[in-house]
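Long-time lurker, first post. I've been practising inverse folding by hand and with some scripts of my own, and I keep getting stuck on stretches where the structure tokens seem ambiguous. Below is the full token string for one chain I'm working on. Before anyone asks, I'm not after the true native sequence, just a reasonable design that respects the backbone. If someone could post their per-position residues I'd love to compare against what I wrote down in my notebook.
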């Protein structure tokens, strides 16, 4: 029998309000509380609570045969505390079953690991503290924001106490090797790597409701056939998806909820496979080979790189101007400034400045930008950064 890892990423950024040039130095209120409350409440009602209830119902029916893993960003947990405590309670009940492994990540869903390893480690520790306070457990495995990974991160992940990480199964990294295996970092064999089977994941995430797709409609029966073919190539399979896919990106009336329930039932009933969490899989299966990832890799787009967030001049300027404040923030004793610096690092703010997505008509991320254009997103963000800089100088 071969293990299946079903992993879901749960994330909501703390969205910025319209912050104009004339607000700089006058008004330090950066956040759109109305939009944040509306979003977490809506997604909670359409996705989080229904999915949590579905999984709890399956756990009640099948017990330990149902195993899943989640990562829930700190900004999401905070907003559930502020605006939707019933949604947070639903997650707490799900985790309390003991059938869910929570993975660690940067608290604020940032790309700090690219530019400042110390800041990255602090943000992961902050996430761990919040997970412990909220759910009473410590994560056993790790995944970075948007599955960002390169060999240089290996030592930091190990120092944080993790020997298991989920990364993207990018073809240009794997080469001839199948994604359906456990690997280890070429820079330190102590770090075990689960590689996402990206083709299968994208079939769900981007093609499920595409009636022009030659495989539409996607059924669990058809998908299981593909899973079986993939498992012939290796010893395990990792499906890593955004939780919001189920009920939010695709509404329940598309059949997405019925699909995921039927898929889980078929995995459980198949005598050739079983559900397992990342830390369980890396204990059961010896790594097949080293993986060398010399540059930043994510799960985004065809390129599997950071170009969705750092692919144009607007994004790179915003990114560097923000992190230029790091040393000043570290010396600052104002908790509000520290909080604001933390929150605005969410990579969603960079994604809103992306220009490449505008040529991809069905890009899900494009549908959720609160701005009219990437340039508007850049101006708004830089106004906030400039105000934060003035507060630090004061």
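-- Answer (accepted) --
I ran through it position by position. Result:
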């Amino acid at each position: 029998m071969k293990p299946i890892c079903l992993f879901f990423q749960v994330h909501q950024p703390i969205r910025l309000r319209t912050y104009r040039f004339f607000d700089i130095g006058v008004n330090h209120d950066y956040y759109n509380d109305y939009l944040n409350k509306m979003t977490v409440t809506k997604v909670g009602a359409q996705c989080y609570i229904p999915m949590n209830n579905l999984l709890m119902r399956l756990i009640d029916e099948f017990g330990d045969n149902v195993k899943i893993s989640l990562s829930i960003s700190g900004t999401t947990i905070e907003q559930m505390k502020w605006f939707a405590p019933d949604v947070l309670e639903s997650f707490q009940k799900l985790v309390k079953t003991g059938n869910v492994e929570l993975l660690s990540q940067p608290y604020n869903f940032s790309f700090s690991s690219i530019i400042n390893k110390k800041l990255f480690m602090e943000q992961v520790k902050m996430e761990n503290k919040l997970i412990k306070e909220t759910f009473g457990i410590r994560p056993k495995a790790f995944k970075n924001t948007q599955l960002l990974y390169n060999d240089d991160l290996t030592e930091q992940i190990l120092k944080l106490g993790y020997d298991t990480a989920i990364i993207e199964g990018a073809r240009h990294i794997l080469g001839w090797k199948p994604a359906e295996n456990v690997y280890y970092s070429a820079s330190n064999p102590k770090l075990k790597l689960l590689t996402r089977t990206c083709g299968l994941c994208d079939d769900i995430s981007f093609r499920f409701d595409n009636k022009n797709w030659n495989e539409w409609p996607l059924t669990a029966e058809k998908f299981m056939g593909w899973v079986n073919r993939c498992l012939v190539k290796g010893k395990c399979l990792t499906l890593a998806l955004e939780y919001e896919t189920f009920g939010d990106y695709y509404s329940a009336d598309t059949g997405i909820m019925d699909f995921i329930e039927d898929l889980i039932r078929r995995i459980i009933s198949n005598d050739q496979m079983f559900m397992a969490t990342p830390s369980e899989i890396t204990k059961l299966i010896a790594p097949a080979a080293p993986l060398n990832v010399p540059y930043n890799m994510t799960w985004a787009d065809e390129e599997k790189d950071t170009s969705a967030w750092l692919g144009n001049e607007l994004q790179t300027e915003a990114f560097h101007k923000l992190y230029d404040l790091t040393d000043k923030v570290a010396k600052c004793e104002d908790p509000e400034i520290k909080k604001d610096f933390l929150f605005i690092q969410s990579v969603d703010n960079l994604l809103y400045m992306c220009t490449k997505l505008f040529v991809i008509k069905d890009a899900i991320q494009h549908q959720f930008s609160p701005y009219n254009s990437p340039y508007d997103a850049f101006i708004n963000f830089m106004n906030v950064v400039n105000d934060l800089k003035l507060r630090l100088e004061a």
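A couple of notes from the structure itself: DSSP finds 17 helices and ten strands in the chain. Residues 33-62 form the longest helix (30 residues). Happy to go over any region you disagree with.
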